[in-house]
Each structure stands twice: as structure tokens, then as C-alpha cells.
Amino acid sequence: MPAAHTLVAFALVAAAFVAVPGPSNLYVIGRGLQSGPVAAVAGAAGCATGALTYVAATAAGLSALIASSQVVFAGLHYAGAAYLCWLGIAVLRSPAAEAPRATGNGSLWRSYRQGTLVELGNPKVALFFLALFPQFVHRGEGSAALQVLVLGAIFVALGFLSDSMYAMGSGRLSRWLARHPRRYRRQQRATGLLYLGLGGWAAASGGR
């Protein structure tokens, strides 16, 4: 188990990292604008699940395999970029006569699943964990894998909190837009372009 001062230092570093907008933040913002705050929070939970998967992979040493295999890394990277572009195309092609509602279990599950895939499609998360966690793992403080899991849980919790704040803010904006159909149609196009832009940026950045 990491020492208290280690946990505090790591929490400060993690908070600074999650405060910078990234793929998960942009996804939940787009989801909130499109489907409201509840669906966006479900998407944020999916992103947290994807990050937690990478935490477990880091603890098991699988992230080292991703880092050492350019083919695996590039494959995950471009698959994630393609998925974001597909989301953008789907939003642009969907009817925009009225605001979609995301209160049913199917809609929430779809948001959760998409959020998970968006995060899993960003292997840089795994590389970030692989580079960051060893700096806070110390001998004499228990199993290295256990220390990584504890630190990872803190990181994922902070990330979920950050994404949820973005989700609630964009979701409330979506409700206002829903009362103004013309603005909502413009917003929906902007959401689709946001996904496409994020996917294009991910693809252009390559496997670096």
C-alpha cells in the first residue's frame, strides 16, 4: 500500500492531468450535447471502465507489451480514430427534428459502451500509466501490482469526476438547445464535426 505522502503527491499529479481536455472529455461533451446529462454521465462511466482496464493491464505488465509492439499500438490507435469518425458520421446522418432523449436503459448502455470503446481506443493512456506509475511505486510498500491498482483507482476516480462535470455542463446546455430547434440542429452538426475532428486528430497524430 502506498504511503500517505505518495498518495497525496500522485493525486495532485493525476488531478493536473485529468484537468486537461482529452478524448474522453471531448466525447462526453459531445454526448451531453447530443443526448443530455444522464447519457453523458453514462459515457463518462464507460471511459472510466476503459481506463480501469488499462490500469489492470499495467498492473499485469500488459502495457509493456503494447509499448514494445508498434503493430499492436498502431492498431489500437487507428481503430480508436476510426471509431470516433464513425460516431461523427452517425451523428451527422441522424435526424435532428427534435432533441433525442437518453433516459431508457438501451440509450444509457449505448453511451456507456461507446465511452468504453473511446477510452480503449486510446492506447496512449496505457503508455501514460506505464510511464507515470513507476515513479510512485516504492519497494517496501507492498506488492508493486497492488500499489499500481491503488494509484490507478485514484486516477480513474478523478478522471470520472472530471468527465462527469463536463457531462453535466454540456447536458444542461443540451436541454436549453432542445427548446430552440434551429439552434439544436446547428449544435448537432457541431457535435458530429467534433467527433470527426477528434478522430481526424487522433489519426493524424499516428502511433507516436
Jot down its keywords:
single chain, 208 residues, mainly alpha, 9 helices
How does this model look, in words?
The chain has 208 residues and is mainly alpha-helical. The protein has nine helices and no strands. The chain has helices at residues 4-18, 23-35, 37-60, 62-68, 70-93, 105-120, 124-132, 144-178, 181-204. It is globular and about 60 Å long.
Distance between the termini: 33 Å
Secondary structure class reads mainly alpha
pLDDT averaged over residues: 76
Following the backbone from N to C, one meets helices and strands in this order, namely HHHHHHHHH
Individual helix count: 9
Relative helix content? over 70%
How would you sum up the major sheet? none
| Envelope shape | globular
Strand count: 0
Write the layout of secondary structure elements.
Elements: H1 4-18, H2 23-35, H3 37-60, H4 62-68, H5 70-93, H6 105-120, H7 124-132, H8 144-178, H9 181-204
Helix pairs in contact: 1-8, 2-3, 2-6, 2-8, 2-9, 3-6, 3-7, 3-8, 4-7, 5-6, 5-9
Gist?
This protein is an all-alpha fold and 208 residues long.
